[in-house]
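tool_call: predict_structure(chain=1)
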Amino acid sequence: MTAPAIETEGLTKRFDETTVVDDLHLTVPTESVYGFLGPNGAGKTTTMRMLTTLSTPTSGTARIVGNPVADREAVVSHVGYLPEEPPLYDELTGREQLRYVAGLRDMDADAADERIDALLDRFDLTDDADDRVGTYSKGMKQKAALVQAILHDPDVVFLDEPTSGLDPRAARTVRDLIAELTERGMTVFLSTHILPVVEELADTVGVLHDGDLVAEDSPERLTHRAESERSLEEVFLDVTSEEPATVER
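tool_result:
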């Protein structure tokens, strides 16, 4: 039996007296898109940092493709992470940035160059690969950061607000690429506050509010929580009991 891509039991994170993530239980199957929806400050990024081994849970457990996140060495090769502010170096060219990341991943240099070339071509970055990252547009930087996150072909990729701040064309490109990742066998954990992204891409949506998972279902079933059909935005506002900081449609 295949282990879930992501599995948590009672995952909790506290900072001093403040509980940021509270008793989180998740099961995310492989080759799926999990939309992690919530207003800014709900605890989404903290959850992702725990699942990618960048932050230690206060209590509870989490596993990535069967590996406990407490065992960082066992987990890191299975995950890719695109944070909301990607770690890109403006003074490097796009190709140099990716080669640097490949080195950190201990990838064979020749194999890394071959994969970099293929991904640059797929993301329409080949013509700009030898320009400095500092000259890239916001959309180009986001695409370069997504290439960086999947360079080592992870089983699970975590994306934190991947379309935030992008113009419509760049956002459309990134959304198309996210859909393609699952076709390639990856599991995508997509954190966002932008409702159309999860409506379009997610197989399952979890709504986080003040650190609590207050709703979880398919996008279609969440929109039918009432007797009459309502939008996911209306359901989202119901279950969070307050208007999120930013809701884009």
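agent: The mean pLDDT is 88. Proceeding to next step.
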